[in-house]
Amino acid sequence: MNQQVEKQQQFGRLKSLDALRGFDMFWIMGAEEVFILLGTLTGVPALEWWANQMTHVAWHGFHAYDMIFPLFLFISGVSFPFSARKRLAAEGGRRALTKHVFTRGFMLVLLGILYNNGLSFDFAHMRYASVLGRIGLAWMFAALIFMNTKSSKTRFIWFWAILVFYWLLFVVFKAPDFGDPDHYSMKGNIAGYIDRMLLPGRFCCYEFGDNEGILPTISAVATGLLGMLTGEFLLSSMKPMKKVLYMIFAAVLLMTIGQIWNLVFPINKNLWSSSFVCWVGGLSMLLLAIFYLIIDVWKYQKWSVFFVVIGMNPLTIYLANRIIGWTQATEFFFSGICSFFSEVWTPLIYAIGYVTVGWTFLYFLYKKKIFLKI
Predict the structure, then answer these.
(1) How confident is the model over 78-94, as pLDDT tens digits?
(2) Over the Cα atoms of the chain, what is R_g?
(3) Tens-digit pLDDT profile for residues 329-347
(4) Is residue 374, in this structure, part of any structural domain at all?
(5) Worst-scoring range by mean pLDDT, 119-123, 267-271, 311-315?
(6) 372 lies in a domain?
(7) DSSP string, 126-150
(8) Total structural domains within the chain
(9) CB within 8 A of 143, min separation 6: which ones?
(10) Would residue 76 count as lying in a domain?
(11) How far apart are CA 219 and CA 207, in angstroms?
(12) N or C: fewer beta carbons within 10 Å in the chain?
């Protein structure tokens, strides 16, 4: 079994990585609404707690929903050493890989602008920062660091240097325009000030800066690099069970560091604080260790097909939710079912239907082997 896992890592793709990516995307294709409604309608304490986790924290703190974005970036990082090995062995080698890294990075930035604004052409009021843009830039710079360093030790130093440097920026500087003495507040932080000075167009999702703004992209590079270090580790010849134990240990250590750092640099998704990188990076690694153990080591794989279908086409479902939407299709297929139940259950049935329609669309693409990739 160990030899099979090692062969898959060397020549193929990890099924656990596709499943984890699908698990991550599942929560933004409508599943969050399903669980919010379940918590509201049933009043079950566990479901109410999870429903509360399906919202973003306003500023400092952490909810599970805050993890979706950085987990995806982490997974993108994990994938890179696998794909880079293939591309380096193909025609064009390093030059082709470098071209791919830059092309993918900037294509995601452009897609992010398109996603936010459609084809409005209202350049003065467009939003230029985006989720896809940050993933593109952070992944690109992390990949360039990974490609141009010779050892894991050097990359490990880069990871911590980025986080410490980013923290010191907040320690030394604050926004001068509001007079707020708190370096980490909505008004007082330096990241928001840089957005107000340099980022054109409109902001999201707080008025004093953009939550995918300029400065936090620095620390997001560390998230991508952490994923790449993890992917490189998974490619090693170490026995799979030992890899699982090391990842769990590293995850717990990172989460502990994140909570300690939180005392002086609050865990904050909008700022992508260094403590946030450690906390969420640890959680991401822990999830990967669990998925890897169950799917690739123990070979319990049938249950994961639901998530693999999503994980093989993450960009498709992300763009489709924005461009296509599934409201009319959901009403077409599920309005009759709603008529059999009390009106109080109608929103939940439609929410489940929305997820079902989206997943069915992805399953069709999966069976036809149609995958949107950049």
Answers:
(1) 999 999 888 888 777 88
(2) 21
(3) 888 999 899 888 888 999 9
(4) no
(5) 119-123
(6) no
(7) -B---HHHHHHHHHHHHHHHHHT--
(8) 1
(9) 80, 84, 101, 105, 224, 228
(10) yes
(11) 22
(12) N
Reference 208, options 235, 239, 184; nearest CA is 184
Q: What's the pLDDT score for residue 12?
A: 57
Q: Residue 116 is part of which domain span?
A: 2-367
Backbone φ and ψ for 151, nearest 5 degrees, come out as: -145, 155
Q: Is residue 71 part of a domain?
A: yes
User: For residue 146, what are its two tokens?
Assistant: 């990974």
Q: Which residues contact 352 (CB under 8 A, 6 or more apart)?
A: 34, 334
Could you give the count of Cα atoms lying within 13 Å of 373 in the half-sphere of its Cβ?
9
How is 325-349 classified by DSSP, letter by letter? -SHHHHHHHHHHHHTTS-GGGHHHH
CA–CA distance, 202 with 153 (Å, rounded to integer):
41
Does an H or E element contain 224, and which?
Answer: helix 217-234
How far is residue 212 from each of residues 69, 84, 215, measured CA to CA in Å? 11, 27, 9
**133-179 pLDDT tens trace:** 999 999 999 999 999 999 999 999 999 999 999 999 999 999 998 88
What whole-number percentage of the chain has pLDDT above 90? Answer: 75
The DSSP line for 153-188 is: HHHHHHHHHHHHHHHHHHHH---SSS----TTSTTT
- Tell me, what DSSP letter sits at residue 7? H
Three-state secondary-structure class, residue 205: strand
Q: Are strands 209-210 and 205-206 parallel, antiparallel or unpaired?
A: antiparallel
Residues 33, 21, 369: CA angle, nearest 5 degrees: 105
By CB neighbour count within 10 A (0-12 exposed, 13-18 middle, 19+ buried), where does 70 fall? buried
